[in-house]
Model the fold of this input.
Amino acid sequence: MKTNVSKILILVFFVAIRINCIAQSTEYFTENSQRINAYLNGPVEWKTCEGEISFPQKYKASKIKSDAFVVSFVNAITNNQTTADDIGVQLKKVGKKKALIINESISGLIQTKEILLKGNYLRANVIVGFIDNIVVRSKVRLTTVTHAKCGVYDNRMMDFQFVKDFFIKDAKMLFSVTYDEMSSDTIYFSNLTSLAEKRKDYRFNIPGTSSEGWINEIFTKQYQTDSTGSYNYAKAPKDFARLIKENKTEVIKDLLFSPNYFTSINAMEALLYLTSVNKVQLTAELSSRIAQIKNGSFIIMQQGAPDVFYKREGYKELHTTDDRVVNKYTSSM
Done:
């Protein structure tokens, strides 16, 4: 009897992959379960819920089965191989009633898509950021339609029991746990590194490359377009004021070439201030980049009153001046 060695090797190869996937999924499930348990059995139970937490007792099997698309969709589009085209493919698979793009934006090089997944019990808000069709960041916020009873006043806490029983067993990511949601935020460092090699006209400050944690946080935020903040005429951003105070001028110069337009604006204004106090001399390269930023047309959120924001199309539409910028930074130092 002949043995087909090649077929056996192929079979062993795929079995190995399958075992590895199962082990990986089990690892995620174990860690996510432990995080939920640690949250529920810690301060939240005794301080927030006064020792009383109760979860819904019944769920419809058909609705649970229908919600399976949430985890498969999330797994499909939150990995370092995802492209912008992949999102369109996944959206077509599940249909507009269950998944849709609710917002699209571009800030500098970063194109962002925000997707809402609408399950019967499970809801997910997914943000995916791309540069040149290569994914650089994904964020998942998971919530539930059903809720747990927390405390005597029936506070509405996330239904962690449902998530543990029917969702995270298949999830391929780790979540942080809070009272009303679970979230996962990932930056794909290998993709940023490869992009940095191709796009020499920008500087990709990659989180983790600085020895100082607070600077790494600045590097991280530039890829999180939903957390970069809004423009304020009166007050300089704290991070950039600190960079100036600690003489991190080279970091500021790098951030002038950030892939995130709003980050580059903050760096530009910090450099305008430093130039005014003779701590920096603008080279031809820096001046050219500043002109490019001032002529950019990407959307900026500008803060009016504490809870009022306006959309401005590019730096020009802010109608500010270099002198006003210098005064802003002078008063913020």
